[in-house]
Amino acid sequence: MLRLVTCSLAVTAVLLGGPARAEDRTRQAKPAAAKEGPLHFDVDRFFQDFDKNKDGSLARDELPEAMRKHFDRIDLNKDGKLSKEELEQGMAHLHPPRRPSDMVYILVEMSDCDECCCDEVQRAYDILRKLDKNGDGKINADELQAMREGLLKERVDMLFKALDQNQDGRISRDEARGHVREDFDRLDANKDGYVDRQELLRAAEKRPEKAAGKGRPAAEQGR
What is the pLDDT of residues 59-70, one digit of tens each? Predict the structure, then answer.
C-alpha cells in the first residue's frame, strides 16, 4: 500500500506547511520548454551540418564517427540512408538507459545556480553517508532496509501527530483525513473502529507483489 506512504507525506506536508516550501522550490526551478533546453536534439540543424551532398538523407560516412556504429539500428527501413524521421526516432538508441542515480549528474549538469546545487548534492552525499552504517564505503541491503524502516516509522509518527487529535494513540474514523479515511476499513485490520500506529506502519511497510522481482529499479517497483 504505497499510496499510504505517499499519503503520509502529503498530509503531513499540508499540515506542516510543506506545500508552501514545495511551491517556493517550483518557482525557483522553472525548467525551460524542452525545445529550448541545451540537450534538445535539433534534427534540422544536424542535417545542415552533416548532409554533405544535400540530398535530404544521411549516408553512413556522413555521420560523425561515434554514431556510425549505430547506423543499422537507426536505419529502420534498411535502405542504407537515414531520413530526418529515422534519426529523430533513433536518437533514443544513442543514449544509455537512465538510472535513478543519474539524478545527481542531471542536477550538476543542468543547475543554473551552483550554490543551490552544492546544497542539494551535499544533502545527497550526507544521506548516503548516513546509510553506510558500518563506514565501509558501500551500501548493502540491510543498511537500506534499516533506513527504510526508520523513514516509515518517522512518517507514521508525524502522521499520527497530525491526525490523532485527542492523543489517545489511535485514529478514529472522524479524525482520519485523505487516503487514511478512504482506506480506513482496510487499515483497521482488527476492526475495532480505530487505526492504531502498528496497523498504519504495517500498511506502509507492505510492498507491491511486483516488487518481488529482483533487479528492478526501486522507481519502477513503486509504479
Answer: 999 998 888 888
